[in-house]
């Protein structure tokens, strides 16, 4: 198994920057603001022939209250999971009391620890490193994660102490990627923890707890899945903090990266405009969709009936998506989500036969012909698959650029019904056949060199 390395330290010492540097990604949000990282974030790094799993964590200050104490617990769990801990401190801040506290926690756990003094740029290395030897953690490395200074040499020395690396093989499939999205405080992280069966991400009774998109791989009944916990998305006019804007971008990227999106709605509040906006975003991205109304068990029968009527009235444009009534806190109905996720995924990714798609097209035309345009009827000749997730059906014919929107919707519904597609939008794309005679000019009849004289005219 590949080694697990955890990045721990106080807030704003550069852990997320180091994470992005070692994984060669931009998965972790980085800004000049303390406390951005809250949940544990995992990524794969590689230096030379060595592969390793990297964990980014939230900062520990020793004065945690409220949500900060949950962030500290996530960091402590990462220490327990790791084989090696890179304890990061800041040369700009110097040695602080919180650093002593973290060093004490590490010594109690008996982990192999390497002290990394980050943000060394602009400082004399010898002078900057001297105070940190007081921690008694052995060798000290000087780095600047933003520029990569000292990072490679540090990792080479750290990884030298490990057993010979395993041969690099093809990555195992990560299974269906499910993004959990919704407005703030609707229970997304609670649902993630319930589906995982552990307190994997921070749950706190305050909107905006999750700031980053957290990818978590796991297995259920020997089937691999990747679940993505995302930040809540509020209406644009309510978004002011720069950090929240970064979080929303991460959420939109997670939607685009997912195979299936589980949209969580607070049943107590009912369906609001932002829920509809998020559904539109998912459909525009072409992703399969499952709708989960959370906090259902706390409603009386009259409110449940009202919410169901609202669903029928307002969600007609996503009638292909399965809807579940769940309680993430108590687990009611959560297991049923997997069946809909599997169904939506297979509908979105199954291979489609050209002959069958063409037959469905011909049947649809026989039942309802395309309209006449400028005295000529639009002709649709054959269809074939053009992609998956979402299923894309390419239809060839003449005057296809003039196919009206209502006829496109008719074809989409016909294909969804004929292919028995559930949980996924369908896209119909048209291509006009080239006219082989478009470049040929009409022959101009040559005039007779000699015209017959008119009657009564001069000869």
Automatic annotation (TrEMBL):
Which positions in this protein are listed as binding GTP 1? 9-16, 56-60, 118-121
Q: Where is the EngA-type G domain?
A: 3-166, 176-349
Q: In the record, what terms sit under GO molecular function? A: hydrolase activity
Which SUPFAM superfamilies does its entry note? P-loop containing nucleoside triphosphate hydrolases
Q: Which residues bind GTP 2?
A: 182-189, 229-233, 294-297
**Subunit structure comment from the entry:** Associates with the 50S ribosomal subunit.
- NCBIfam families attached to this UniProt entry: GTPase_EngA, small_GTP
Could you identify this protein by its name?
A: GTPase Der
Q: Gene symbol?
A: der
